Amino acid sequence: xxxxxxxxxxxxxxxxxxxVHRNEVLNQNGKQxxxxxxxxxxxxxxxxxxxxxxxxxxxxxxxxxxxxxxxxVPAGFADEQNVLxxxxxxxxxxxGLASDDWTELGTLYQANGIGNIPFTAFLARNVxxxxxxxxxxxxxxxxxxxxxATIEAMIRQGEFIESAHIAALYLARLHGLKxxxx
Length: 182
Hints:
The chain is of the alpha+beta class. The chain has two domains: 5-40, no CATH class; 44-175, Alpha-Beta Complex (Nucleoside Triphosphate Pyrophosphohydrolase), CATH 3.90.79.10. It has helices at 83-95, 148-156, 163-175; strands at residues 5-14, 18-26, 32-40, 44-49, 56-63, 68-72, 75-77, 97-98, 101-110, 115-125, 128-129, 140-146. Strand 1 and strand 2 form a beta hairpin. It is elongated.
């Protein structure tokens, strides 16, 4: 099968957070198409924050695109080159929590049919309250620690619907929410 080929590429819109591209391409069959897609300007990070009891921190964020308050794990953009540094900053800014026990869970992609939207998921174990400034621009209405079984029930009942956040939770579960004692 032939590879897709880009004939031209144009950036049609840009903000500090994302860009929209419009490309003229030849697909695998040689058919010319216009392909538009979204690309993030900075990497995004998702943090599964777990306390000593094995509960996961969830927060309710207002999402304008859906006009809903949604349960999510802490997440944001890593303005720095180092995604772990960005994850630590986002956790502190959004929740007032910090951890000395971080595991990078991997990088996944959202909406890959319409965008280049990667995120790196992290597991932060034994999170605790920390001093630091919260971001006043975040529209986070509440936050709480929830046990994993309750989160699974929330997913089944349609109360937790953001797919990238569910993927981050699943990766954390695969890696073990609590460290194995040897």
